[in-house]
Amino acid sequence: MQLSELKKRxxxxxxxxxxxxxxxxxxxxxxxxxxxxxxxxxAEGRDFILTPxxxxxxxxxxxxxxxxxxxxxxxxxxAGRVVVMAGCAHAGTRETIKACQVxxxxxxxxxLVVLPYYHCPKDEGLYQHYKKVCEGVGPxxxxxxxxxxxxxGSWAKPEIVARLSKIPNFIAVKENTPYAAxxxxxxxxxxxxxxxxxxxxxPPLYIFESVYGATGFITERASFAPELEYSLYEAAVVxxxxxxxxxxxxxxxxxxxxxxxxxxxxxxxxITNRTGYMAMGVAKASLDIVGLRGGEMRLPLLGITExxxxxxxxxxxxxxxxx
Length: 323
Description:
The chain is an alpha/beta fold. It folds into two domains: 3-249, Alpha-Beta Barrel (TIM Barrel); 251-323, no CATH class. It has 14 helices and eight strands. It has helices at 3-8, 29-43, 64-78, 93-105, 123-135, 149-152, 158-164, 180-189, 203-209, 226-237, 241-249, 252-264, 278-289, 306-319, and strands spanning 12-16, 48-51, 83-87, 110-114, 142-147, 170-175, 196-199, 216-219. Strand 6 (170-175), helix 8 and strand 7 (196-199) form a beta-alpha-beta unit. The longest helix is centred in the first third of the chain and has 15 residues, at 29-43. The two termini are 37 Å apart.
C-alpha cells in the first residue's frame, strides 16, 4: 500500500487483537487466524485497523518468533481488506527497528510503536528513537507512536511529536493521555495532513476528543463486538454526540462486571492508583463466549473463573452482544 493511501485509512476503530493461547500457554495460531477472518469480513469496506501484538495482545509475553508468526497470520487473513498496524515494541531503539523490519517483511502496513519503557529517555532521545525507527523501514511503511505514559513512565510532548510529524512516514499517534488539556495541546500542535491522532484510551475520551478531530479510537472490545464499537464511531463522525454517549453507556454492565472481577481477584500489585489487567481476561472470555477464540492468559496475568464466565455470558446476552 502506498503511504498516501495508508494515511487516508488511519481512521475509525483500531482493534487491538487478543492473542489466543492454548491451555498449555502455547500460541493458538489457528484461533488467531479464525478471529481475524471473522473480523476482517465485518470490517471490509468500513474504517477499521487491525493491530496484532499490541498491549492487549500480550506482546511482552511472546518471543520474537511467535510475534512474527502472529503478525504474518493476521496479514494473510486480512488479505488487504483491512489496514494492519502491527505492535512493535521494545525498550531499545535497535531492537524496535528490527521488530518493525520483521513486521514490514511479512506484509504489515505499518507499526504501532510504544514509548521506550523501563528507562525514560530525554526529549531529544525520544525524538531520535522515533526518527531512527522511521528511517529504518521503507518509505511506505507507516509509524504510529503509542503515547502511553502508564506503561512507559514518560510522555512525548506536543513539541516533540510536532517535530516527528514532519517525517513522511510518521503518520499517526495513539494518544493515551487521560487529560483533556494535554490532548488539546497535542491536537493544536499537529497538522492532520501530516499526522493524525486516534484516542488510545478508547470511547471514554473519544467522546471529547472527536470534537477536536480525533480520527478514531483504539479498543480491544471490537474483537468480539465490532458492530457496537463501530456504531459509536459512526455517530461521532456525524457529530451526534448524544448518540455517542448513549452507545457508550450501553457498555455499563460490562464495565461493572470488569470492576467486580478486579475486586474479586484480590489487590493489584501496582503502587499507583491504576487497576490491574483483569479486563484482558474478561475480553478473552468474551471471545470464547461469542464463538471465537479467546483462550488463556499467559502468566503473570490471570484469566477469570468458570463461575465468572457464567455471569459474563449473562452480561453479554443483556447487552445484545450474545444473540
